[in-house]
Amino acid sequence: AQAVPGALLPVDAGDGAVPSLLLRQDEQLELLERLDFVVRNVVELRKEVEELRNSLQHLAVEIVGEVRTHLEETQRMTRRRKFTFSRERSDSTGSSSIYFTASSGNANTDDGESEGGYSTANAESDYDRESERESEDDVSCDTVRTVRRDSLDLVPEDESPLLLDSSLEEGLGQLLEQADRLHSGDERDKREGFQLLLNNKLAYAEQQEFLWRLARAHSDMWELTEDADERRSYAIGGKEELELALQKWDQSAECHQWFAILCGQVSEYESIPKRIQAGYIFKEHIDKAIALKPQDPQLYYLLGRWCYQVAHLGWLEKRTVSALFEVPPTATVQDALQNFLRVEELSPGFSKAGRVYIAKCYRDLGNASAAVLWMDLASELPGNTKEVTLSREQNQILPLCSA
Prior knowledge:
The structure is a single chain. The chain is mostly helical. The protein has a domain at 175-393: Serine Threonine Protein Phosphatase 5, Tetratricopeptide repeat (Alpha Horseshoe). The chain has helices spanning 18-21, 25-91, 126-151, 161-183, 187-199, 201-204, 208-224, 228-248, 253-266, 272-292, 297-311, 315-324, 333-346, 352-364, 368-379, 392-397. The longest helix has 67 residues, at 25-91. The radius of gyration is 35 Å and the shape is globular. The two termini are 19 Å apart.
């Protein structure tokens, strides 16, 4: 689900918008800052509660795992120690306090009994039982120390991290393939894919390919969810994931692409200045993604939509941009047309919506015959092409798409 900041679109200034225009610019900014502060604190509180819940669940799993590991290791070491003691007794003949016969004091090695019927080789003294208990206690303490060391990741460099990394890498490859397949599916598949990635976040949170797919899944959930608060939460969650990812992997085209898209989705709930600022951010990251991946038609499609929006800014948006920003965004219908034609050049039939935009651009430029031609070409494509079709949610952010 692709979204471009709705800030750069014409907004129907109804009766409710008139009083806000009567405020001075500094009063508008102060009011916006206060509202942003309240919203930001609510979002942070919700995030902290969710993190606390996840931490408690993870802690419970770790405790159960450590206890089970401790018990299994203790039992295994205990059986090993008992076997060792038994073998040592059968080989020894010099301990008169343990091995004796009633008549002569010589050990009988035939059947384990003396001539007088007393137990010999298998007899144990109180000292033996006490020694064995002490040995088991030592093993138990060693096991506890080992488990604690493992839980704190204090593993020496010469142990098994290479095997563990190899196993994780293989599991990551399978996970990413499954996530891509679910992302291309229906609503149920996308929800399943989102939950799948969440369940594996602890294991792969430091992997670039995992993080941008997790952010993409947040975008999918934004599209599928009806409740406004939940949608905003999904968009903000995905954006925050990529903010961390871009600090490490600034050369990832996918990270830049989905960060731009999520900025657009978040901007649906922002004030006009914030939405316009999101437009700058959107353009910046789409440009970076194109520089890193110049053969991706989807990136040119997104840039074309952004140019088309800027070229059709309404009077209110233009006045707001001029008042708040020194350098307003600039783009023409011709710029938008060149990007949409680039999409067709890289992947003919990539997007039905892209062909509709080409027709709109030619119409705006006064070329009616080309506009009719491209509308006919668009009608030849099915409604669901490689590029995700215009959904109800995208039309809310981009009303020009349905014009």
